[in-house]
Amino acid sequence: MITKQQRSWMMYDWANSAFATTMIAAVLPIFYQTVAASTLDKHVATSYWSFTQTTAMILVALISPVLGAVADLSQRRMAILRAFAWTGALSCVLMSLAGNGDWLLVSALFIFGTLGFSGGNTFYDSLLPSIASSEQRDELSARGYMYGYIGGGILLALNILMLEKYSWFGIPDKLAATQIVFVSVGIWWFLFSIPLFRTIKDPVEWNRKPVRFYANQGFSRVIRTIREIRRYPELLKYLLAFWFFNDGITTIISMAAIYGAQLGIGTTHLIAALLITQFVGIPFTYLFARFAKRLGSKRSLYISLSIYMIIVLLGYYMQTAVHFYMLAFMVGMVQGGSQAVARSIFSQLVPKGRESEFFGFFSLSSKVSASIGPAVFGIVGLVTGSTRLAILSILLFFIVGILLFMRVDIAKGKVEAGEGQS
Fold first, then answer.
1. Burial of 151 by CB count in 10 Å (0-12 exposed, 13-18 middle, 19+ buried)?
2. pLDDT at residue number 422
3. Backbone angles phi, psi at 389, to 5 degrees
4. Rounded to 10 degrees, what is the CA torsion of 95, 97, 102, 104?
5. pLDDT tens string 62-105
6. For residue 319, with 0-12 CB atoms within 10 Å meaning exposed, 13-18 middle and 19 or more buried, which class applies?
């Protein structure tokens, strides 16, 4: 039985996945390459986009400890999540002001949008232990991703129709259509986040403190968590593995469209293929959760990461739109399921009663690590002048991640988490 709180929690994935699909994965990267950065060489534009991703992740990492302290100590978690969500939505609306040569403006607004998206997810993810038992989390986490695929996919389909048939909507040209698409993402994110904020509330009374207090508390807690995490060896080993393979996954998501655009694949094919990823992800994310119950979380994650390695290798040799469609289908098979299982595994290894602290560190550390992949991609692309070699460099993150994950004993980690309570 899905509760009202759980349903509203999943609806937030529906809401903010519009940013993930249209702004991170599909429309904005192509707009950046072909319009905003049209005055730059193609491989330079691709590298600048990757550096934009890196900058956004580093900024999220720097402010996360402070915001985590504010959320926990002031009991204003939902208020901060709302501020992040609506900041991200506003950045999408303002993106409509960008045109030819405005790559710096687009980079800046995307950074603010990513702060809203990733920063908000820090608090969104930390709600999972409080609304679901440990037995429910695998399935609820997967359902959240499934809602995200549906919501993001529906809006992306409407966006594609608007971009390809803009005259049907009385829009004068494709640039204007793209700008309206950006506005639609902000509105979608704002409207569908409302159920979560109406259903889950912060306490009425809260302790207001100076920003300096929260900054000191936030960074002190990060240092304390780093020291404490050594008491949970399996959790520490899992975090190290996660940093690597998650970096590979996020880099593929953020760089796929602009990589394809530089190889000469048409905009229509790129966006349509990424739409396929969304709708393939709907049933496969649900099936993956069932699959994980039978084989176990660890084996399921092994399989998905192995498929990602195949995707990277095939991406190196990609030539045509057909190849991009095939890779998009493969990504849809494993993307949501692998992320859902990875989040669920972490929730099982977290010490009881310290979920917010460790989920905050999980989010912080993953943002730091996620900044490395796009940076490596950008540096390799600039130095070699080849984005094919840049995409191949991502293979290293999966290899190291899998090797580290092999050393994780989840059953032992659950015992350690339980012992942490006493």
1. buried
2. 35
3. -65, -35
4. -50
5. 877 777 677 667 777 888 899 999 999 999 999 999 999 999 99
6. exposed
